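Customer escalation, tier 2.

The customer says the design service returned an amino acid string that "doesn't look like it belongs to this structure." They asked us to rerun it and document both sides in this ticket. The original structure tokens are below, unchanged.
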């Protein structure tokens, strides 16, 4: 049996009653105090996440922009220095290699932040399409990453730095920031539907920063959070998770992240023909929100039916901690995507009624 990988914070999980699980080959906390409590803390106060399992790949050189335009669905040329962009990489058939955020340091230096389970696959995909004047380096081992999320995130984090964090606006970042006397890169992208920061640091600085943030946020009610709350938070905000809403068989257009696909940009990207056709004419299937009418929870991979015919499947589903309703996201035949369309979800041996509803399920005011 392969041993799971551990982040630099693994040894202190037990100090906060962390319960760990195997997540994509990583031994990570699913919860500390409890998923619902952690979810509520992020929605109302602040939560702290260890996301050091995420991958970091540098793309450098004179040919960096041209190369990234080819492998990314979004328009890299529009990104300014010290800004981030959400994008995807696709196969020729439009299926998704990964969704990611990239950081522009300058015209010849980019940092790609990729999903943990896809680090090796993404690196190999980039190397396979590498062009002249481009250097591609997997630097994942050089970074730990901590995310502070919630309405109190700025207030808490500001206590530890002289950098005016209000200057780091949404999808921007700063490097060389001194936070609790440690040198970090800090960005503001979020994956919870709330405000907050991602802090990239040296692995050996992670424990110090984790403790400093918890101490700084004690009066604001900050709590350590696990993958369970991270999943319910991102789900309510309709943020895609690779392996569920996005896969090699699901295109970004089908998954509802068409805003990150620019098929008409000057440079052709891999998968352009399929993505352009889907964007212009609409895909044959689409990600929709479902709310259960009958009592039951629509779990991942449960089949969805209409008039006895299978029309799709659930990608993610749970009882929403915020709405207190049983809801899900599902990829279904586009002809049934209209709001209030009644469908059935196969929950074990029974088909239970549900209806198509608007998403995101939660949006911060």
């Amino acid at each position: 049996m392969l041993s799971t990988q551990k982040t630099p914070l693994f040894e202190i999980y037990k100090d906060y009653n962390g319960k760990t699980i195997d997540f994509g080959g990583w031994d990570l906390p699913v919860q500390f105090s409890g998923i619902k409590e952690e979810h509520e803390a992020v929605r109302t106060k602040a939560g702290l996440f260890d996301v050091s399992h995420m991958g970091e790949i540098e793309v450098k050189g004179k040919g960096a922009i041209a190369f990234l335009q080819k492998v990314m669905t979004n328009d890299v040329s529009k990104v300014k220095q010290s800004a981030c962009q959400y994008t995807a990489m696709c196969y020729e058939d439009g299926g998704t290699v990964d969704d990611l955020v990239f950081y522009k340091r300058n015209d010849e230096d980019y940092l790609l932040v990729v999903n943990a389970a896809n680090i090796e696959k993404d690196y190999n995909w980039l190397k396979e399409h590498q062009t002249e004047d481009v250097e591609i380096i997997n630097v994942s081992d050089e970074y730990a990453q901590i995310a502070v999320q919630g309405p109190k995130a700025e207030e808490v984090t500001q206590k530890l730095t002289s950098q005016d964090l209000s200057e780091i606006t949404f999808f921007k970042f700063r490097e060389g920031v001194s936070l609790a006397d440690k040198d970090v890169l800090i960005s503001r992208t979020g994956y919870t539907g709330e405000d907050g920061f991602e802090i990239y640091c040296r692995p050996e600085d992670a424990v110090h920063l984790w403790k400093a943030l918890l101490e700084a946020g004690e009066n604001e009610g900050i709590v350590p959070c696990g993958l369970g709350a991270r999943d319910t938070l991102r789900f309510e905000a309709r943020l895609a998770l690779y392996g569920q809403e996005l896969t090699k068989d699901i295109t970004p257009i089908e998954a509802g992240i068409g805003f990150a696909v620019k098929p008409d940009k000057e440079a052709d990207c891999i998968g352009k023909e399929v993505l352009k056709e889907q964007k212009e004419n609409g895909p044959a299937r689409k990600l929709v929100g479902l709310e259960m009418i009958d009592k039951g929870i629509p779990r991942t991979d449960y089949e969805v039916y209409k008039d006895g015919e299978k029309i799709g499947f659930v990608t993610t589903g749970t009882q929403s901690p915020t709405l207190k309703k049983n809801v899900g996201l599902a990829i279904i035949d586009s002809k049934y995507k209209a709001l209030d369309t009644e469908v059935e979800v196969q929950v074990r041996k029974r088909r239970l009624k549900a209806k198509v509803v608007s998403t995101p399920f939660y949006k911060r005011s």
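Tier 2 assessment: The sequence is consistent with the input. The radius of gyration is 21 Å. The mean pLDDT is 97. Sent an explanation to the customer and offered a walkthrough call.
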